[in-house]
C-alpha cells in the first residue's frame, strides 16, 4: 500500500513501461522497473498483479471464459472447480489462461504444462501401514480396487464433497506413521544388503567441519553483515487474544524490560524481570506461559547466560514429536512440502530426496506411501538425511533410516538411505552426496525450519544456495516460520517474537493431550530463549518472513514453483483433525501456502527451482 | 438462458473503467465456480482464491491495524483500524488499545460484503476500504469477520454483529472524551448493509445507542420480481439466479425471500414506527438490479418517520466503491464523511 512514488499517476489507462519518449519516461521506466514494472497500482493494492499494458488482454480472456462457461453450463463449470488445480490467483492473466486451456487444450498436449492440472494418477492411501488410533477414522480413504470407503468425519465448517481428488497426498495422523511391529535395529550393517528389494542403508558418514568448528572461524559477525542487502519486511501482523487487564500490564512490563535491556539499563531490567514473574502468576492460559519463557530469556540476557546447553538428542527428539502431535504446524509443513515434491517427481523413475531436517524422518512415510501407489509403480526412492551430531554415541540417523527401510520393504518401494551428520548445512558439499546425473535420478531438496539457522554465520546461506544448485534439484521445498526475528534492533526482535509466540502458544491451548501441550511449550520455549537471550553465532533462530526469503532465493538464482489449490484444500482439510480446525486457516500467497492462527500467518511453505540461466554463474549478493 | 453476452459485456465495459471491469468480472467468474447447483459452496477454493492481507501494526499511509479475538466460542475475529498519531508514529504493541484522545471519535463498525458467503475482514478489498474510512472520517474502524453462509445461516451474521457491537460499546478505550461514551456508527456494503439494519434493530431493542447507519448497495430482496430485477438481470455483473442462490444459502431452509431478514419492510417485516432508529445513509447504484428493493427500504424508513438520506448514483454498478477511480466513489466518500462528521 505504500505510495512513495507519487509521481506515478493513478491513471489506469496510461502505460508506465515502455514510454514513448526518452527523458522523463526513461526515469519512470527505471523506477518502475525496480518495483513491479507497469503493474496497475489500484489492482495491486487489492492483491492482483496485472500489467497496465495487459489489461485489455486480461479483459478479453475474462470475456472468453465467460462465454465458454456459459456454453459449458453447470457440468463444465463444476469440473473447473473440483478437478482443476488452480495456481497463484494473483497472476490473473496466467490464471485465466490456464482455465481457458481447460476448455481448449493446446494442440501439442503437454500433461505437465502450464494448464496446471495434476497429471498422472497418484493413487490413494490405503491403510495397512497406518495403525490404530481413533484419528484414522476421520480420514476418507478411497481404495480404488475394493471400493472400501470410510466416511469422513465432518466438522461443522467443512462443507465439501467426500471424495478428494485421487491424485493427491492424504493426511496421515502422526502416531500411526510407523507400523506397530517395528523392531530395534541391529547395530551392524553393511552395504551389501541381502534383501531382494535392495534396501540399502549406507553407513553413516560423519562430516568433518572442513573449516573447523564454527566458534573458531566464524566469530560473531557484526550485526550488519548478517542481514545487509536483504530488505526487511515492514508488515507487523498482530492479533490480540487476551484483552484482560493483567494481560496488558504483563505485556507492558515485558516491553519495558526489553527496552531497559536494549538501553543497557540492567538494574531497571532486573527489577522489571522480577515484576514480570509476579504478574505472570496471576495471568491465565497461554499468556502466562509465554510471559514466563520471555521473562526467563530476558533474565538470561541480563545475567549474560548466553550459551544454552545444547539439548540431548533424545530429549530434543521427544520434544519435536510432542510438537508434531500437539498442533498442525509440522504436519502442514510435511504435507505441503510432500505435495510439491510428489508433483515434481511426476514421471521420474528414480528419485532422490535430500532432507536438511531429518530429525525422526516423520515426513517421509507419507511420501513413500504416495509413491508406492503411483500409477505405473513407484520410483526407486533414495533418501539422504542430514542432521546434527548426537551427544551420546547413538547413531540416530541410522536408526531412522532403518525404520524407513522396513516401511519401504513392506510397501514394495526400492529404497536407499544415507545419513549424514553435520554441525552445519554449510559443511556440505555436493561431492559428498554421491549425486547421479539428473537424467537418471531426480532430486528434491527439503528443509523444514532449518534454513534460518544459516543466517547466524556470514556466507553460510550463500554456500548452501550454491551447493543446492549443484544438486540440480527438480524442486527445493522450504518451510519457515513466518516472522522477522532477525532484525537489527533487539527491541524490535523482542516485540515481534512476543507476538509470534503468544499467537503460537494460544493455538496450543486447544491441544487434546496435556503432555503434548507441555512438551510443545518447552520446545517453543527453547526457541524463545534463543531469539531473546543469544547473540552472534549462538543465535540460530533467525526467522525471516516470506518476503525476505523470496528476496534471498531470487537473488541466489532460484525461481518459484507454485503450490496450488489441491495442496491448499488438502492442507485445509488436515486442519480439521485439530480441534475441528477452529482458529486455524490456510492462506495462499503468490504460490506459497501459509498456515496461521486467527488470521495471523505463522508458518510458510514455499517451493523453488534453480532459475534457468544463460550464464553458468550467478552473482550472489552478501 | 441464451442471453446475448456480447451486448451485455460491451455495455458493462462502457460504464466502468477497464481495471474496475476486470476486477468485478474476475469476482463474478470466480464466484460462479464456487456456487454449486445443490446449494453447497466450495469453501476451500473460495479461501484459496480470496486475496487476503495481514493486519499491520506499522502505520501505512497514517493507518495501522490489528486483529482482536472478540469471542472465543465462535472464533469471532475483528480487525481494528486506527489513525497513527504524530506523537506515536509507530505504536508500541502494548499501546494498540490505547484510549482515543479526541473530544469526539466516531467508531465505525464495518460489515464487509460478499452476499453473506464470500470475503472476510482480511480480504484485500475490504482492508483497503476500511483504511480509507479511517482517514476520511477520522474514525476508528472495526471490521467484523462474521460467520458466513451456507455453513452458517441466519441469524449467525446478525448474532456476530451484535456481539461485536456489545464489545465495542464496552471498551473504555473507545470512549470519546466529550461524554465518556462510544460514538458508534454501523456501516456495510451488500450483505454488510443488510447486517447493519438488523444489528441496528437489536441495538434499539436493547437500548444501545447507535448514531448512524451507512448502507452501501445493501442486499435486500423479496419474493416478487421487481422491474429493476427484470430489466437489469445479467446486464451489470449480477444475475437474479445468483441473488436467489445467496438467499437460499443464508435464509433458514424452507424460508422464502419474504423472510424479514431479506425483506425487512415486506409482509413479514416489522414497522419501525415509534422506534428510535439511527439516521441512515443509503447508497443505491443505478445499475444494480436489486435497486427496487433498496429504494423500498428507504421508503419503509421514511414511512416510519425515520431520518434517511438516499444517494442514488445513476451510472454506478456494484462495487464502484472498491476503487477510487470514478466520480461515484468520491461523491459517496464525501457524503459518508459528512454523515459521520455531523455529530462533532
TrEMBL record, chain A:
Gene3D superfamilies membership: Transcriptional regulator DELLA, N-terminal domain
Biased composition (Polar residues): 8-18, 135-145
SMART domains: DELLA
Cell location: Nucleus
Domain of life assignment: Eukaryota
GO CC term (a single one): nucleus
Chief localization: nucleus
Short sequence motif LXXLL motif: positions: 451-455
Listed Pfam families: DELLA, GRAS
GO biological process, one term: gibberellic acid mediated signaling pathway
Alphabetical UniProt keywords: Gibberellin signaling pathway, Nucleus, Repressor, Transcription, Transcription regulation, Ubl conjugation
Spans annotated as Disordered: 1-21, 130-159, 180-230
Leucine repeat II (LRII): annotated segments: 399-431
Keyword Transcription regulation included in the entry's annotation: yes
Spans annotated as SAW: 533-609
Cross-referenced PROSITE patterns: GRAS
Region (VHIID) location: 320-385
Amino acid composition bias (Low complexity), ranges on this chain: 180-197
UniProt domain Transcriptional factor DELLA N-terminal: residue ranges: 40-107
Intervals of motif VHIID: 351-355
Family as reported in the entry's similarity comment: Belongs to the GRAS family. DELLA subfamily.
Domain notes: The DELLA motif is required for its GA-induced degradation.
Biological role stated in the UniProt entry: Transcriptional regulator that acts as a repressor of the gibberellin (GA) signaling pathway. Probably acts by participating in large multiprotein complexes that repress transcription of GA-inducible genes.
Protein name: DELLA protein
Species of origin: Hibiscus syriacus (Rose of Sharon)
From TrEMBL, chain B:
Pfam families to which the protein is assigned, alphabetical: Abhydrolase_3
Chief location: nucleus
Localisation: Nucleus
GO cellular component, as recorded: cytoplasm; nucleus
Ranges where the Alpha/beta hydrolase fold-3 domain occurs: 108-321
Active site: residue positions: 190
BP GO annotations: floral organ morphogenesis; fruit morphogenesis; gibberellic acid mediated signaling pathway; positive regulation of gibberellic acid mediated signaling pathway; raffinose family oligosaccharide biosynthetic process
GO terms for MF: gibberellin binding; hydrolase activity
Keywords: Gibberellin signaling pathway, Hydrolase, Nucleus, Receptor
Family listed: Belongs to the 'GDXG' lipolytic enzyme family.
Protein's name in the database: Gibberellin receptor GID1
Organism name: Hibiscus syriacus
Amino acid at each position: 500500500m505504500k505510495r512513495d512514488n507519487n509521481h506515478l499517476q493513478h491513471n489506469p489507462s496510461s502505460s508506465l513501461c515502455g514510454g514513448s519518449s526518452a527523458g522523463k519516461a526513461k526515469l519512470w521506466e527505471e523506477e518502475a522497473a525496480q518495483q513491479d514494472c507497469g503493474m496497475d497500482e489500484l489492482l495491486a493494492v487489492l492483491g492482483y498483479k496485472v500489467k497496465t499494458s495487459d489489461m485489455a488482454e486480461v479483459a478479453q480472456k475474462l470475456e472468453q471464459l465467460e462465454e465458454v462457461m456459459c456454453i459449458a453450463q453447470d457440468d463444465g463449470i463444476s469440473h473447473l472447480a473440483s478437478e482443476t488445480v488452480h495456481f497463484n490467483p494473483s497472476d490473473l492473466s496466467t490464471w485465466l489462461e490456464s482455465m481457458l486451456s481447460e476448455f481448449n487444450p493446446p494442440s501439442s498436449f503437454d500433461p505437465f504444462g502450464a494448464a496446471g492440472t495434476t497429471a498422472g494418477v497418484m493413487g490413494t492411501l490405503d491403510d495397512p501401514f497406518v495403525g490404530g488410533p481413533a484419528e484414522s477414522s476421520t480420514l476418507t480413504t478411497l481404495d480404488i480396487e475394493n471400493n472400501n470407503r470410510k466416511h469422513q468425519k465432518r466438522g461443522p465448517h467443512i462443507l465439501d464433497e467426500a471424495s478428494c481428488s485421487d491424485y493427491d497426498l492424504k493426511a496421515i495422523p502422526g502416531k500411526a506413521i510407523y507400523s506397530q511391529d517395528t523392531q530395534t535395529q541391529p547395530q551392524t550393517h553393511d552395504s551389501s544388503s541381502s534383501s531382494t528389494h535392495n534396501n540399502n542403508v549406507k553407513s553413516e558418514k560423519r562430516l568433518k567441519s572442513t573449516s573447523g568448528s564454527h566458534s573458531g572461524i566464524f566469530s560473531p559477525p557484526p550485526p550488519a553483515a548478517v542481514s545487509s542487502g536483504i530488505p526487511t519486511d515492514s508488515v507487523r501482523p498482530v492479533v490480540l487474544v487476551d484483552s484482560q487487564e493483567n494481560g496488558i500490564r504483563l505485556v507492558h512490563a515485558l516491553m519495558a524490560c526489553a527496552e531497559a535491556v536494549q538501553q543497557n539499563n540492567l538494574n531497571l531490567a532486573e527489577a522489571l524481570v522480577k515484576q514480570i514473574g509476579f504478574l505472570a502468576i496471576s495471568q491465565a492460559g497461554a499468556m502466562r506461559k509465554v510471559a514466563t519463557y520471555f521473562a526467563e530469556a530476558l533474565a538470561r540476557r541480563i545475567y549474560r547466560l548466553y550459551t544454552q546447553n545444547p539439548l540431548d538428542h533424545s530429549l530434543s527428539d521427544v520434544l519435536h514429536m510432542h510438537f508434531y502431535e500437539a498442533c498442525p504446524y509440522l504436519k502442514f509443513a510435511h504435507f505441503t512440502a510432500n505435495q510439491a515434491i510428489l508433483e515434481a517427481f511426476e514421471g521420474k523413475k528414480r528419485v532422490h530426496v535430500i532432507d536438511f531436517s531429518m530429525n525422526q524422518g516423520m515426513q517421509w512415510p507419507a511420501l513413500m506411501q504416495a509413491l508406492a501407489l503411483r500409477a505405473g509403480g513407484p520410483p526407486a526412492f533414495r533418501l539422504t538425511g542430514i542432521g546434527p551430531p548426537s551427544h551420546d554415541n547413538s547413531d540416530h540417523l541410522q536408526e531412522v533410516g532403518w525404520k524407513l527401510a522396513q516401511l519401504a520393504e513392506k510397501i514394495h518401494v526400492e529404497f536407499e538411505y544415507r545419513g549424514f551428520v553435520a554441525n552445519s548445512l554449510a559443511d556440505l558439499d555436493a561431492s559428498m552426496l554421491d549425486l547421479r546425473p539428473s537424467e537418471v535420478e531426480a532430486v528434491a531438496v527439503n528443509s523444514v525450519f532449518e534454513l534460518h539457522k544459516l543466517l547466524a554465520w556470514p556466507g553460510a546461506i550463500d554456500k548452501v544456495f550454491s551447493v543446492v544448485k549443484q544438486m540440480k534439484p527438480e524442486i527445493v521445498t522450504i518451510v519457515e516460520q513466518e516472522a522477522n526475528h532477525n532484525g537489527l534492533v533487539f527491541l524490535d526482535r523482542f516485540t515481534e517474537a512476543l507476538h509470534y509466540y503468544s499467537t503460537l502458544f494460544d493455538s496450543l491451548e486447544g491441544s487434546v493431550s496435556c503432555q503434548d501441550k507441555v512438551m510443545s511449550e518447552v520446545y517453543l520455549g527453547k526457541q524463545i530463549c534463543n531469539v531473546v537471550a543469544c547473540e552472534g553465532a549462538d543465535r540460530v533462530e533467525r526467522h525471516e518472513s516470506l518476503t525476505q526469503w523470496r528476496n534471498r532465493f531470487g537473488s541466489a538464482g532460484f525461481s518459484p514453483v507454485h503450490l496450488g489449490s489441491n495442496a491448499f484444500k488438502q492442507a485445509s482439510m488436515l486442519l480439521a483433525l485439530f480441534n475441528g480446525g477452529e482458529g486455524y486457516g490456510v492462506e495462499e500467497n503468490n504460490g506459497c501456502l501459509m498456515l496461521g492462527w486467527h488470521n495471523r500467518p505463522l508458518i510458510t511453505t514455499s517451493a523453488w527451482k534453480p532459475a534457468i540461466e544463460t550464464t553458468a554463474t550467478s552473482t550472489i549478493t552478501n | 438462458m441464451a442471453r446475448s453476452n456480447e451486448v451485455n459485456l460491451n455495455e458493462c465495459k462502457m460504464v466502468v473503467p477497464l481495471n474496475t471491469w476486470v476486477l468485478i468480472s474476475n469476482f463474478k467468474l470466480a464466484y460462479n465456480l464456487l456456487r454449486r447447483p445443490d446449494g453447497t459452496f466450495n469453501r476451500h477454493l473460495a479461501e484459496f482464491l480470496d486475496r487476503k492481507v495481514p493486519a499491520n501494526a506499522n502505520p501505512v499511509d497514517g493507518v495501522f491495524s490489528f486483529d482482536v479475538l472478540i469471542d472465543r466460542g465462535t472464533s469471532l475475529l475483528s480487525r481494528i483500524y486506527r489513525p497513527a498519531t504524530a506523537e506515536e508514529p509507530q505504536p508500541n504493541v502494548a499501546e494498540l488499545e490505547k484510549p482515543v484522545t479526541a473530544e469526539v471519535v466516531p467508531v465505525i463498525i464495518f460489515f464487509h460484503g460478499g452476499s453473506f458467503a464470500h470475503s472476510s475482514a482480511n480480504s484485500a478489498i475490504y482492508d483497503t476500504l476500511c483504511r480509507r474510512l479511517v482517514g476520511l472520517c477520522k474514525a476508528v474502524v472495526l471490521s467484523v469477520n462474521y460467520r458466513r453462509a451456507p455453513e452458517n445461516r441466519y441469524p449467525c451474521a446478525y448474532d456476530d454483529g451484535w456481539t461485536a457491537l456489545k464489545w465495542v460499546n464496552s471498551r473504555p478505550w473507545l470512549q470519546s472524551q466529550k461524554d465518556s461514551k462510544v460514538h458508534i456508527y454501523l456501516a456495510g456494503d451488500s450483505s454488510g448493509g443488510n447486517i447493519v439494519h438488523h444489528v441496528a434493530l437489536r441495538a434499539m431493542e436493547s437500548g444501545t445507542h447507535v448514531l448512524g447507519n451507512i448502507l452501501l448497495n445493501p442486499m435486500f430482496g423479496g419474493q416478487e420480481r421487481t422491474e429493476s430485477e427484470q430489466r437489469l438481470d445479467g446486464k451489470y455483473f449480477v444475475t437474479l439466479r445468483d441473488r436467489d442462490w445467496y438467499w437460499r444459502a443464508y435464509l433458514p431452509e424452507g424460508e422464502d425471500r419474504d423472510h424479514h431478514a431479506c425483506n425487512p419492510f415486506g409482509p413479514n417485516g416489522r414497522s419501525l414506527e415509534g422506534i428510535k432508529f439511527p439516521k441512515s445513509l443509503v447508497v443505491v447504484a443505478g445499475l444494480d438490479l436489486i435497486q427496487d428493493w433498496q429504494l423500498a427500504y428507504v421508503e419503509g424508513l421514511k414511512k416510519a418517520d425515520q431520518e434517511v438520506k438516499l444517494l442514488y448514483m445513476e451510472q454506478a454498478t456494484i462495487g464502484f466503491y472498491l476503487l477510487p477511480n470514478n466520480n461515484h466513489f468520491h461523491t459517496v466518500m464525501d457524503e459518508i464523511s459528512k454523515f459521520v462528521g455531523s455529530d462533532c
